Amino acid sequence: MPDTLLAAEPAPLAFDPARAALVIIDMQRDFLEPGGFGETLGNDVSLLQAAVGPCQRALAAARATGMLVIHTREGHRPDMADAPPAKVERGAPTARIGCAGPMGRILIRGEAGHDIIPELYPAAGEVVLDKPGKGAFYQTDLELILKNRGIDTLLVAGVTTEVCVHTTIREGNDRGYRCVALADCCASYFPDFHRVGLDMIKAQGGIFGWVSDSAALVAALGNKTAARSSAA
């Protein structure tokens, strides 16, 4: 199929939707809702809500074209054997990873808070990837999934921009994937970190990748869908 052109910085990116994946990082209740891990660290979780609507639009466009969709969740085994002590020791002693919270044990797989928010809940057949760290490649089978599907381009959304999104894009870039941060589909508890994180990705001619947004993706995939419908 001919390449689709995505408006982006530092330059437009031509990509094939059949070889691209929408990767939605950690849109979990523990990070976005009151009472979760994000709030226990002293953050204003309402700041992350800005990414929900744009993520919904990007997700709908990806689903309409049959693009591979991958959702990630950061969290740990119930026995916490995969949770490093240095990570567990963060936060108030009574509100750390593994402690009981309003949505179950904080950042523990299988608990309500660990799951993805209802607005972006995975559809049947979409990949849900549980990861113990910040990056989506670390200690997961993400790279195997991508290689099996012939993926070369990652459209990355989610939270937080400067931590899990940035780490995943850096990991993907090192592995040879073309990585695009969808700016309005990402968010941070610190707006300045969000801005600078995006600037770092596209600096120096795109040292880690590209920066685009949900409107550009919807437009690009809409053109592709229209062309496919005309051909049919």
TrEMBL record:
<dbReference type="Pfam" id="PF00857">
    <property type="entry name" value="Isochorismatase"/>
</dbReference>
<dbReference type="InterPro" id="IPR000868">
    <property type="entry name" value="Isochorismatase-like_dom"/>
</dbReference>
<protein>
    <submittedName>
        <fullName>Cysteine hydrolase</fullName>
    </submittedName>
</protein>
<dbReference type="GO" id="GO:0016787">
    <property type="term" value="F:hydrolase activity"/>
</dbReference>
<dbReference type="InterPro" id="IPR036380">
    <property type="entry name" value="Isochorismatase-like_sf"/>
</dbReference>
<dbReference type="InterPro" id="IPR050272">
    <property type="entry name" value="Isochorismatase-like_hydrls"/>
</dbReference>
<feature type="domain" description="Isochorismatase-like">
    <location>
        <begin position="20"/>
        <end position="213"/>
    </location>
</feature>
<keyword id="KW-0378">Hydrolase</keyword>
